[in-house]
Amino acid sequence: MRNRNLPVVILTVLLTSSVATLQTPVARADICSGPPIAFNCHPWAPYGSLTSQLRFQFYPYPQAESTAFLNGELDLPDIPISTCPAPPVGGVACFPPNLDFTTSFPPEPQYAFYGIQFNLQNRTAGVQNTWASWGCNFQHGNSQCGIEIRQAIAHLVDRDQFVNNYIAQQAVPIADPVSPAQDPPGSPLATQCSWDTLSSGGDCIDSFNLASDPSGFATPGSPDFCVAVAHLVNSGIGLTNNQNNCAIDPDSPGLTRISSAPIRFFGRATDPRRSRLLNGLLDAINQLFGTRAAIPCFGTITACSPFRNPYGWDMYTFGFQVTDPFADHLDSLFDSSQATNGQVSQCGGPIQSVGDNYAFVCIPSFDTAARAALGTSDSTIFRADTLAALDELGKTAALLPIFTPASSSIALNDMLGLVDQKGAGFSNFWSGFNGHANNGSTPQNPIYTFGGGTDTLRWGQSSGVSSLNPYLAQTVTEITVLGQIYDTLFRASPAEPTKIQCWMCDNYQESVDASGNTHFLVQLRQNLRWQDGPIVDSKDVKFSLLTIRDLSYSFYDSLLLTVNILSGTTLDIVMQGHSISHLPNLAGSPVIPRHIWEKQGDTTYGDVGTVDPAKLDYEYDPITSGTFIGSGPYVCKSVFPADTGKVGTGCSADQDGNRAGQFDPSTITLQRYDMTGLQGNTDPFLQYMRSYNPAWSTTTSSSTFSGQFQEFSWADRFDNATVTIRDLTQVAACLGASAPTAACPTNDIQGPVFSYWLKPNLHGGTNTISSEVAVVAAHLDDTWVYPFSWNGVQGQQPGQRLDRIVVFSG
User: Hey, which bits of 151-210 come out as E strands?
Assistant: First the structure.
């Protein structure tokens, strides 16, 4: 549950350009059918990887990547279709209509939101706050005069028209500081209309909006302009109506104070959406007051930034990027305990250099509701408490959310396995995991052939990387690369991000102790292997979760209390209190090899130690050090002659093809993690634990065990999506049989028995059932999508059905 204020750390590229005019996407064989949904239905599979190579190709800026895609050099770019090649050509679509391209429509809301924030801090000794100079202390959002002023300003922006005019299809209007892609997606209209102190609600289009303003901003004489005047008069700062009641009287006594202390409106000139918002609202404010009531500040960040000078700004065009499918960020962004300016705690919380609540919102009723939402694991209660918290922010107009970015993705039509992840589009873990060539198609233009004719998924990244250290990585690009090397204990469904499945585990049991803390008793899968060979065990998971909590910049969970080791495959994860976000937060933490990263001899966490300090240095390069090793679907294996095939190094290259490390490479080429066929290997599990290979058990080479999905599916004879004691008992009854017997008949009600269990290639080609029993035992209790149902048949696989998952085949 880490929030990122976009001006501080840019974790994602949110771009705006002219919107592409694209041909209607071609119908695809891998788009599932069903009721209407919010975005294209590309199914996902919980197994992979489906290509032999994955190559990340990095570009210095987004337009270079879009040009590369048009030139046939990429299968999957990470940019939205609104990113035009450089130089942009006026009036020409960013990506012209092309049957060799497929796109996601309509544009998907991202996990982000933009709008206007106000500096709500009280007047501080020696510093005169602008609002106080006007005669109104905002009192951290609690004063009535402040509510009236902020509601007046809110009436000046028409969110719908602003988005239509300036961002077109690449944004969604919002009234709350949550994304429509999150749960809950925002306040209902009736609630929004109740916030206005001067409106009965019957004439409300949405929050603080009475009528459409074609320009995106209220103009003199419009209904919203007139009610804004009324709000200012009601604020009691010395403003009166003129005779027609729809303008401020220029002789109002308060105007002198206002013009002598204009609003310092800070904006980000590098973002055209925010610049347009600032400039349009600035003009509307000055028209409303009939004097220079606001001035822009596009100067240095030190002069007027909320983050460098807490007293030097009054309004700000903010942008927040959040990470969770649940709208659980409200507490950390707006709770009173986070209101600090580096010098004093505004509302009783700890003094920090820059608190998340840099606007100094301190509304007790909000705190109560937001903290209650964060402290429940019941989704119904969470939604009710979150909506109550949003209601408190809305009534006080503590901030003015305006839009959530939305984008449509693009990729080659010759790529099957694209997954349209909610809040992300095509560029996500699942597309890398499921993506592969469409061998049944012939592109109209051969340059748009998957992989350029090879079995390599070419994934474009619109920015480079500077750190692939899991403790130091910060950007979306870096985290994307790491996500293919390092796996996670849990993983969210790409179609329903609030549904969290066991990924490296078979199952978990949730309980609450006498102190009110939540425990997750987790059983790991038996087939987990690090890419350099060792078994992944409970101590690896404990080491990872605790060191990530304490040392990582981008992956952490402050609610994690401890991890107790019960056995090599069983562990007890203890989380503080109740929270609906516990599992989503755990699903974001990578599992890191303790045998590589742990400080030798250290016992910081009792039975595991902390990270070797040398590996926390920014100069430490996992690729050149040969430690870029995880347990994920792809592996870094050297492609250079000096150490061809060595794991953990030699997978990055500069623009000339020379060996490189983590610092700004041109490409990083990863191989499918499956080393069962390596000469001398005797471990059938030296492969990704969810690997896919239809040739499983049909070859005579050492790679006969390649394909853990197929092996699991075979071991699960009774199609429960779980290998049970029933499966093991039946195959054990066949042990030693070379032909059908009474205990191992030819058939049963399910179908063949003896011939089903006999897999000669698992034991050198002999026709006697032997090691088959050990193979099934090695998967006993294995599940695949726990606690959900893969096929939806409750008698076989109890649990909720997962949306858009591929059809289960046992």
Answer: 171-173
